[in-house]
Amino acid sequence: MAKVGVFVCHCGENIARTVQVQKVVDFAKKVPGAVFSADYPYLCSAPGQKLVIDAIEEHGLDRVVVAACSPQLHEPTFRAAVAQAGLNPYLCEMANIREHCSWVHRDIDDASAKACQTVTAAVERVKRARPLDPVEVPVTKRALVIGGGVAGIRAALDIADAGHPVVLVERQPSLGGNMSRLSETFPTLDCSQCILTPLMVQVLRHPNIELMTYSEVEEVSGFVGNFKVKIRKKPRFVVAEDCTACGDCAEVCPAPGGNEFDLSLSSRKAIYIPFPQAVPSIFTLDADRCLNANLDSPTGFRVLACVKCDEVCKPQCIDFDQLPEIVEREVGAIITATGFDLMLGEQAEECGYGKYVDVMDGLEFERILSASGPTQGEVRRPSDGKTPKDVVFIQCVGSRNPEHGVPYCSRVCCMYTAKHALLLRHKVPDSRAYIFYMDIRAGGKGYEEFVQRAMEEERVMYIRGRVSQVIEEDGKLKVLGVDTLSGRPVEIDADMVVLAAAMEPADKGEIAGTLRIAADTYGFFKEAHPKLRPVETLTAGIFLAGAAQAPKDIPDTVSQASAAASKGLGLLSQDLLQRDPTTAHVDETVCAGCFECLAVCPYGAIERKELLDAQGEVYREVAAPNPAVCEGCGLCIVTCRGGYIDLEGYSDDQVFAQLGAMGPPPEVMER
Amino acid sequence: MTEANVTVAESGTGSVPEGWQPHIVALVCNWCSYAGADMAGTTRLEYPANVRMVRFPCTGRMSPLMILKAFEQGADGVLVSGCHPGDCHYVQGNLVARRRFTIFRSLMDFIGIDLRRLHFAWVSAAEGHKWARVVSDVTAAVSEAGPLPAFESPEDWDGVELPSVGDGGPQELTADQLDLLRANLRRAASEVLAAKRVGVVIGYGAGSLPGQNVPKLVTDSSACEILDWGHGCVNNLSTYIGDALEHNDRVAVVVKTCDLGAITGLIREDQVRRDQLLLIGMQCPGVHSGSALAAKCLSCSGDPHPICDLVVSVDGVHESCLDPSDAALDMPDARDEQIAYLESLPYAERWRYWQRQFGRCLRCYACRAACPLCYCSSCIADKHRPQWVPTSIDNAGNSTWNIIRAIHLAGRCSGCDECARACPADIRLDLINRKLALEVERQYGRVGLDPEEKSALIDFRMEDSEEFIL
After folding, report:
1. Nearest CA in chain A to B73
2. Of A462, B16, B75, B156, which has the highest C-beta tally within 10 A?
């Protein structure tokens, strides 16, 4: 028979005001198995904890119920206290008589009756608890970083600098991400590429970083500290080690088309390097554009219609026979930094995007402003190459628009639009910049001052209101809107229109699915807790950085990347990980092998195990949960019709006993 | 459920004892609703003290057995609360649970549990106000419904007359045609045995009474003359596959179209592989229940299904084997009207109807033995620690058993009616099974004959309906 001690906390007056503590103490004595009960004004205080520890020793208690506040607060405190007294920490149970009782009920009799019953249920539950030991798993001391934008670069460098190997995977041919497309950065007007490319080079040279560009994460299995990752290296058709990036191949290549890096404002050949500072500096042959059909299909019939690049390549590094390669890596931590795309939806179309070439999005305008861009930094519009004089910037295109876009604020548009207008005024001094805005959100160091500078020094015209339509008339883009401050309609004849389109996650569910991490309605990865665990996911060992988690600017992205790296380092610095032992267990002797548990498990924690007979032959397959992977959700347990699976800490036996103690209040407790 | 029967519903006992207070058990998940209730406390929001809470890691850990246990222990109402869809700490626990609870709720409704007693809510860790509101609303609703009616067989009650099922059924076969079918079946069986395509044919032989048939296993190609076919071939022979496979690599089974769902289920649930089976699909004249056609046959054409490997009809024996992913199994049912009639009754009437039915249960578990999909080596009903299903033959234990049996078959039951046929107490298990099958199909679409498809209750969609969840 268990010997349970019940300790009831007054919490000063917080509990004692509405719950008759003495009544609870007396009632607890009558619960079968409870051999001791006591109360104390503040159990969580040092003397309170000592009371518990002393009672365990004095009365030989083997189970403890603490009737006090929410287990979310003090369960760790009392588990540690009972452990100090030599009990297994999982033999301590909290009965929440504060948040769920004294604070929400006014009637003293009702509250006391509820407290008595809550304590009874906790005693019944803890009587059936089993001592549990943390599951220990070793840690693979290597990290995977997904995404080679500034977030991924920063996180990879931080971990590598701390001495751990890192695998950095980027799906594009070069590192850099969206930041490498930007011209200058607000509010300091640093040249974006000038501050980013040194980091890119550091990554390439870092002895601890294995860089895989033009590669994608295909499969992730395993669990915290022990992930197995399959990465698909797409064929470049260029031998990376031999390429000198001389560019002879691109010169002769007869297959031009838009350059995605410049958002098709410039062109590139089928064999190309996306931008001059690309890292690694290797040419890539785009199989979709190359005149040689079916290059990337290992089984397709390939026709070598053109070998011009091969003919001129002096180092002989063109290899039409390259195949996709799957490489496997074991890692202990994963940082996801997959970044953002711009969302050009319904509202962008109303503003003429896709219809008029001189209506562009913010990133396209960044390329036009950039010294490495298609116009070498001169502001010239795409349609006729003329320098625009009147430019209208429209903010919140898609953002903060629940009907035709997304309800959230994309956070960076106010600032980059101010920067766009300011740079336009710098580069074209006789130009006029108009900005349609809903509100100006310039919360950041030096941000408000920057907007003021655009308004006051550069005389950028801010119009509070929305644009209903952009139409072409007499060679001008007529922007029709309304000034909501004066209530008057506004018409501006513009030479160019720039839309601050909403940010959306670049990952459209593939990475979230591969990693089995949660995403919100819009596809942004979900953090474990918005305030207290902002860079962790709910899947242990997977961390978040950058705009893949929510729209954010470069300083926030870099901070978050370093935070994610430090979280990852915290994990990699341990030799053994302790995992919560509240995991699922299968009774192999009766498992019928329907494997519906395996089908519902969100973590792939259940494996098929072959049972062998005396001759060593398989006679049955049964389900076997891996305690190192199991998160203890309990989905499998309810799926198992025979009741052969159980969950430590929340066993059927415990729940049954709890429910049994929760019938209508017995007479003694009624008034 | 219609709007009308909510308003006419009355408490089962009719009278409410003085000073009665509703007793409510809440099952809450640790990460959202428990924390939401904490938040209500921190914010000092007052709500009724009638609720007792049990904490779980996830709504996915909460079993219908627990709700039943709460009712059995005297709860007048149960509240289940978890994270909003998309917020689950375990990614999808609440989404799978949502399907389970949707179906369980419709069963509770069907057997006469007033839905004002059973509530589901999504309350996040930030929604302290919502928690307080939900508890207040649920307490008010349960107060309105009154004390839980007793689990007892009603006395002095006239019962209800279910509408008759009408007539119909497969085309009548003449004696000559039946003889032809038997001859074709014997030939087919003999050939597959002689060619060593299978080690045994599971079929029917003549029983000891005229018109009765019993399962027969034939292993010798020359002994196929004992195989019989006719109105008496009632059994679903898929129950014998497991045992037959212990001694043979491959077995042939003589099947009616109504048996196929069970076989697909067995394949889907890893109990047998399709390549271990040779299905001999029979043209069926319908089977008899007593002297009349069984209810399941009334809307059946009797044609053999093309997913069988061999199809035996009056015309002869044909190789078939349609890809199951292209196959449909459309089984309308003449009893749907009886279900609709029961659903039109007020809760109290429904409760009495089913309590009288369950009151007759002998706990012989013939339903379990006859069910091809009840293959567990040890049943939850026989489990002692904890004893979810009380072993005593009273209405509470009987109700729990019959409800759990139905829930365990929800989304899986193939409608072969073997349980109802085997029941010596004539409990209308067929109506419960059919009701749940209709509900699963209405909510989640039909799962066909493709074993690759997941069955509905282990699957989920983000957009699954949840109009009843607070």
Report:
1. A663
2. B75
Domain boundary pick from B304, B326, B348? B326
Q: What is the CATH number of domain A4-132?
A: 3.40.50
| Mean pLDDT, residues A143-169 taken together | 97
Of A96, A110, A634, the CB nearest to B58: A634
**What is the least distance, in Å, from the CA of A168 to any CA of chain B?**
26
Q: Is B288 in the same domain as B361?
A: no
CA B138 to chain centre: 28
Q: Based on the domain organization, do B389 and B289 belong to the same domain?
A: no
What ipTM, to 2 d.p.?
Answer: 0.87
CA atoms of B470 and B464, how far apart (whole Å): 15
B265 belongs to a structural domain: yes
- Residue B170 within a domain: no
Give A610-636 pLDDT, tens digit per residue: 989 889 888 888 999 988 788 889 999
Among A593, A635, A638, the residue with its CB nearest the CB of B270 is A593
Portion of chain A with pLDDT greater than 70, in percent:
98
Same domain for B367 and B268, yes or no, is no
Domain membership of residue B248 as a residue range: 175-326
pLDDT in tens, A253-301: 998 999 999 999 999 999 999 999 999 999 999 988 888 877 766 666 6
Identify whether the C-beta of residue A367 lies closer than 8 Å to the C-beta of residue A472: no
Cβ contacts of B387 on chain A, cutoff 8 Å? 656
The CATH superfamily holding the domain A340-505 is FAD/NAD(P)-binding domain (3.50.50.60)
Q: Mind spelling out the 3-state secondary structure of B271-282?
A: CCCHHHEEEEEE
Selected for mutation to probe chain A from B43, B61, B373 (highest A CB count within 10 Å) is: B61
DSSP state of A147: -
Query: Which of A599, A579, A587, A581 has its CA nearest to residue A646?
Result: A587
Residue B67 falls within a domain, yes or no? yes
Residue in chain B lying closest to A583 (CA):
B57
What residues in A contact B385, CB-CB < 8 Å? 653
Band (pLDDT 50/70/90 cuts) for residue B330 is low
B411 pLDDT tier (thresholds 50, 70, 90): confident
**Reduced to 3 states, what is the DSSP secondary structure of residue A37?**
strand
A402 pLDDT more than 80:
yes
Chain B residues whose beta carbon lies within 8 Å of the beta carbon of residue A121:
52, 54
Distance from CA of B23 to the nearest CA of A (A): 6
| Contact (CB<8Å) B86/A521 | yes
- Within 8 A of A70 by CB-CB distance, chain B residues are 34, 38, 41
Q: How far is CA A4 from CA A49, A57, A658, B215, in A?
A: 16, 12, 15, 57
CATH class for the domain made up of A143-233+330-339+506-572: alpha beta
CA angle B323, B327, B328 (to 5 degrees): 170
Nearest by Cα to A20 from A70, A67, A72, A73: A67
Nearest to B376 among A98, A100, A642 (CB): A642
- Please write the tens of the pLDDT for every residue from A121-139: 999 999 999 999 988 888 9
